Amino acid sequence: MTEEKKIKQELEEKFSYLKDAIVIKRYRRVFVNVSLEKFDEVFAYAARQMHFEALSTITGMDNGESFTVMYHLNRQGRIVLNLGINVSKNNPVIKTVTSFFAGADIYERELVDLLGIQVEGLAVGNRYPLPDNWPKNEYPLRKEWKAGASGKETQNA
Amino acid sequence: MLKAIFSILVFPGFLFLFIFSFVAEYVDRKLCARFQNRIGPPWFQPLADFIKLASKEEIIPLEADVTVFKLVPVFALTASIAAILYIPIGGERAAFSFNGDIIVVLYLLTIPTIAYFLGGWYSRSVYSMIGAVRSLTQLFAYEVPLFLCVLASALLADTWSLSEMANFYNHHPGYWFFNILGFAIALISLLGKLEKVPFDIPEAETEIVAGVFTEYGGRLLALLRTSLNIETVVGASLFTAVFLPFGFNLHHPAAIFLLYLVKVFSIIAVVTLLRSLFARLRLDQMINFCWKYLAPLALVQVVANLILKGILPR
Amino acid sequence: MSKPGKMTGQLIKSLFKKPATINYPAQRSGMAEGFRGKLKFNPKLCIGCKLCMRDCPSNAIVIRKVGEKEFEAEIDIAKCISCAQCVDSCPKKALEITPEFELANLDRMKLKVVFSADTGDDTQEKT
Amino acid sequence: MHDPGEVKIPIGPQHPALKEPESFLISLHGEKITASSVRLGYNHRGIEKACEERTYIQDLYLIERICGICSHSHSTCFVQAVEEIAGLEIPTRARYIRTLISELERIHSHLLWLGVAGHEIGFDTLLMYTWRDREAVMDILALLSGNRVNYGINTIGGVRRDIKPEQKEKVLKAIDILEERTKYYIGLAQEESTILERLSKVGTVSRQDAERLGAVGPTARASGIERDVRKDDPYAAYAELDFKVITSDKCDVYGRTIVRLGELMESYSMVRQLIQKLPDGPITIKAPRKIPAGQAVSRYEAPRGEDFHYVRSNGTEKPDRVKVRAPTLANIQAVSKMLEDGYLADIPIVIAAIDPCFSCTDRLISLRDAEKQSKNVVTWESIRLKGIEWYKKQGIDFTILNKKLAESF
Question: pLDDT by residue for chain B (314 residues), tens digit each?
C-alpha cells in the first residue's frame, strides 16, 4: 500500500466522519475537507501523531458565500496534506495554529489583512502585508472587492 | 612673511594639496578598479564629483546643531592642511619646523577624526551618532600603534623634529630599514585612520548608511571628502618622511620632489591593494586585532630601537 | 587554514588583464541572437484577428483597421515587457521580435510607436 | 538621547543593506542587538488579485515578474499546477529544457548571492569578481531563452524555445569556466581570514529552531535539515538526475555560504547531465485556453528554498485563486532568531544570508489608478522642473548640455 493510502486509512480509522472527505489527487497530494468544529482535533492529530512537521503555508479563498481556509502540511518535505475548512463569510473566525507551528504567524496575518478572517489567539504584532493606514473593512482578496476608490486614499495619506 | 603665506596657500599648503588630493583619489579609484578587473573612472572624475557636490543644495537636518555641523568640514580640512607644513616633502627641510613638531603633526592628524565625531554627533541622526561613536572607539585602537611606530623612528634618530629626523636618516643611509616592522604596522593603522576597508567601520555603508557623513550633502560633503583625500596625502607624506627617509641628497630639487611623489603614490598603491583585499571587520574584532597584535608589535619596535640606538654608530 | 589576503595573486594578475567591463556607450557588447527586444510588424500578413491583443499581458499592443484588409499596429514600448507572447499567438506570423534593446527615451510620448499599414515602417506617434 | 544605553535604529524601508524595501527595527545596546522586529509588505503589488482578473497565458508572464532572480521558479511552479489541473503530460524534451533553465537560474542566483554577501561584509572585490563571472551564465540564459532575466521559456504545455546543438557547446564551455571559478571561491571562503571572521558563528539558528520556524532551502540545509523538493518531491526531470543534497551542520552564515557554493558544483554536474541526456522530440503540446475546474498544489525548489503555489480553477480562462508562498516568507521568521545576541555589524549579512527576495514575499494587491491627480502629490516632472530652476538660480544651466545629449541618441 502506498504511503498516501496509509495516510487516508489512518485518518479514516481515527475519525469516522472523514470517510468521504479524503481525496488522493495524485501521488504525494492528499486533500481533506474538515468541518470547522472538528478541525482542531484532526489538525492536532496530523501535526503531532502523524508527524506532519512542516507547514508550507495557509491559503485563504473566497467562494462567494463562504471562505475556504486550506492548511498545507508536509511530512519530511514529501507528502503534502491539504486540510481545508469552510468558514462562513458573515462571521469568519478561526483559531490560530501558532502553537503547533511558530512560523504560521505570518500566514495567519495574511488571512486577517486580505480576507478579513479573524484569527483567535494571534499575538499582537505588525500587520502584514497591507500598509498601516489601509482603510477598515476593505479586504482585497474578497471577490466583491475591486481595485479603485480605496486604493487612492492610502496612496495619498 | 611672504614666504610663509606662499607655503600656506600655494606650496606645500592649500593649492598643492588640493590638486594632489584629486590626483591621489584618482590613482586610488583607478587602481582599485583595475584590481577588480574594471575599467575605472576617467581622470577628471574626482574633480567632476567635487564640482557636482559643490553645486548641490545644502540640506541641514532640523535637529542638527547648525554651527558645529557647518564648521566641522572646515576644521577637518584646515587641520590636515596645517599638518603638511611641518612635513619635509621637497628635501630635508619642511616649510616650518621646531623641536617637537612630530607630536604636533600627529595631533593635527587626529583633529579630522575628532571633527568627524562632532559632525556625526551633532547631526542627531542615529546612523551618524553610531558612526561617530564608532569612529571615536576606533581612534583609540589604531592611534596607539600608529604613534608608537612613529615615535620609534624618532627615538632612533633621537629628535622630536621631522626635519631633523630626515636629516639624521639622510646622513645614516640604511638606518631607515630598521623601522620596517614599524612601517608595516603604521600602514595598517593608517587604514584605520583613513577609514578604509577592513577598518571602514565608522562609515560602513551596508550597516549605518555612511556613518558620520550620512546627513552631509552638497558643499559640506565636498569639503569633507576633500579633507579625507588630503588626509590620505598628508598621511602618506608623513610616512615618506618617517619611514622612507632616503634620497634627500639628490642633486636636483626636482629629482628629490619626484622621488617624494613616487614614494607617496607607492604608499597609496599599497593602501589601495589592502583595501581591496579584505572584508570589513567588526568593531570588536578590529579593536582586538589592534590591541592584541599591532600594539605589542609596535612596542617591540620601540624596544628594538632603544637597543639599536645604543649599539649603532651615530 | 586561515590566510589573510588570499586574493592578492588574483588582484595583481588583474592589473595586467584586459578589464571585463566596457566603456558604454562608446563600446557596445550586443545581444545574443534571438534576444527579445523591440517588436516588428508586417502589415501584409496581418488578418486583424487581434489574438495578440487578447494575449498581451500588459496591453501594450493595439491593432487598428484602417481600410479593407489593412491594419496598423500601435505598440507602447513603455508597456511592452518583451515577452514575445504576441509573436507566439499570431497565427500568420505578422509579428516578429528584434534584438534591438536600447529603447529608452527622454520623452514618454515618443515611446508609442505606430507601424503603418502600407510599409510596416515605424513612426513615433505625434500627439 | 534620554537613555544612553539604548538606541533604536531603523534598517529600512530604505537602507543600503537592503536591495528592496523592507523594514527592520533594531534596538541596540552599544553594538549589541537587544531586540528586533520586522515589518513586511512594502512591495505588495496585488499580483494574487491581479491573477484572478487575467487569463492563464497572461498570468504566466505576471507570475514570472513576481521576482527577477527566481522568475523561472515562479513561472514553472505555476505552470506545473495549471498543467496538473488540465491533465497535460508535457513532452520529455520540454521537461529537460525546463530543468536546464532552472539549474542555470540557480547558478546565476547563487553567484549573485555570493557577490551580495561579499558586499554586505564590505568585501567589494569579491562582489566585482563574482558578478563578472556571473555574466557567463547570464549570457547563456540570454542565448537559450532570449532574455537575461524573466526568461519566458515556459508556456502551458511545454516550453517556447528549443535548444540547438551549437548552443549546447556554448553552455558546456561556460559551465567549465564557472566550475573552475567556483572552485576558487570555495577555496577563498575556506581560507580568507576576514571572510571566516565575519561569517563564522554569526546568525546561528539551531536545527530545532529552523524546523520550528519553518525555514526552507539553503537556510534550512545549513542547519542540518536535509530537505530539498528536488529530491523529496521530484518534479520536471529531477527524478532522472544524479545529484546530492548539500547540507552543513554549522548552522551559521558560513554554513549557508558553503551550502550554496556546494550547490553550485552540483548544479554544474546537473547541467552537464541534462545536456548529455536531452532527448529528441517535440517541445510542446497543445493546451486548452479554458482550464477545467479543479485544484492543484505545486512545489518547486527555488534557489532560495521551497516555492509553493496553489491554483484553483473554475472552468473559465481565468483562475479562481492563485496562492504564492515564496521561500523568503518562510525564512524571514528565522531572521529574528538569527539576530538575537548579534552585533549591529552582523545585521546586513545575517539578513542577506537567507538570500531574501522581498518582491517574492509581498505579492498581492490593488492596481492603483495611475491617472489620479491630487494637490499633495508631487509629480516627477515638477520635481525635475524645480531642480532645473534651482540650478539656474545658482548660475548653472544644463539645458544646452541636455539638448546635446538628447541629440546624440
Answer: 777 787 777 777 788 888 889 999 999 999 999 999 889 899 999 999 999 988 888 888 888 788 888 888 888 888 888 888 888 877 667 777 788 888 888 888 899 889 888 888 888 888 888 888 888 888 888 989 999 998 888 888 888 888 888 888 888 877 778 888 889 999 999 988 888 888 888 887 777 888 888 888 888 889 888 988 999 999 998 888 888 887 777 777 788 888 888 989 999 999 999 888 888 888 888 888 889 998 999 999 899 888 888 887 77
pLDDT of residue D407: 64
- Structure confidence at residue D369 (pLDDT): 34
D365–A129 C-beta distance less than 8 A: yes
Query: Is the pLDDT at D304 greater than 90, yes or no?
Result: no
Beta-sheet pairing, D319-325 with D305-313? antiparallel
CB burial readout D71-86, b (16+ within 10 A) else e: bbbbbbbbbbbbbbbb
Alpha-helix runs per DSSP H in B36-100: 45-54, 66-84
Here the CATH number for the domain that contains residue A81 is 3.30.460.80
Task: Please tell me the total count of domains within chain A.
Answer: 1
Give pLDDT, residue D366: 34
How far D11 CA lies from chain C's nearest CA (Å)?
30
Tell me the longest C-alpha to C-alpha distance in chain A. Answer: 60
3-state secondary structure of A84: strand
Report which secondary-structure segment, H or E, holds B238. helix B218-242
Query: Is residue A32 a contact partner of residue A84, using CB atoms and an 8 Å limit?
Result: yes
D207 touches B at CB < 8 Å:
no
The model's pLDDT over A8-34, given as tens digits with 9 standing for 90+, comes to 888 888 888 888 888 888 888 888 888
DSSP β-bridge partners for residue A99: none
Determine the distance in angstroms separating the CA of C23 from the nearest CA of chain B, rounded to an integer: 8
Nearest-CA distance D105 → chain C (Å): 17
Please tell me the predicted confidence (pLDDT) of residue D363.
56
The three cell numbers of residue D341 are 545576541
Look up the CATH superfamily of D47-327. Answer: Cytochrome-c3 Hydrogenase, chain B (1.10.645.10)
pLDDT above 90 (res D325): no
Burial letters B177-208, b for 16+ CB under 10 A, else e: ebbebbbbbbbbbbbbbbbbbbbbbbbbbbbb
Supply the range of the domain harboring residue A94.
Answer: 3-156
* Distance separating alpha carbons of residues B218 and D394, to the nearest angstrom: 13
CA dist B187 and C58 (Å) reads 58
Collect all residues with Cβ–Cβ distance below 8 Å to D235 and sequence separation of at least 6.
D80, D229, D298, D299, D300
Cβ contacts (< 8 Å) between C7 and chain B: which residues?
Answer: 277
CATH 1.10.3720.10 matches C35-124: no
Q: Nearest CA to C21 among D132, B43, D125, B38?
A: B38
Q: Is D399 on the interface with C (CB under 8 A)?
A: no
In this complex, whether C and A touch, counting 3 or more CB pairs under 8 angstroms, is no
Residue C24 has pLDDT above 60, yes or no: yes
The answer for residues whose C-beta is within 8 angstroms of residue D97's C-beta and 6 or more apart is: D153, D159, D161, D162, D163, D278, D283
- Which of A39, A98, A46 has its CA nearest to residue A68? A39
State the cell numbers at D45.
Answer: 503589488
- Alpha-carbon span B290 to B137, nearest angstrom: 12
Q: Which three cell numbers stand for residue D322?
A: 492563485
Listed in sequence order, the residues at least 6 apart from D387 whose beta carbon sits closer than 8 Å to its beta carbon are none
CB pairs under 8 A between B and C: 33
Cα gap D69→D79, rounded to integer Å: 18
Do residues D26 and D39 make contact, with C-beta atoms less than 8 angstroms apart?
no
Structural domain boundaries in chain C: 35-124
Q: Coil, strand, or helix at residue D23?
A: strand
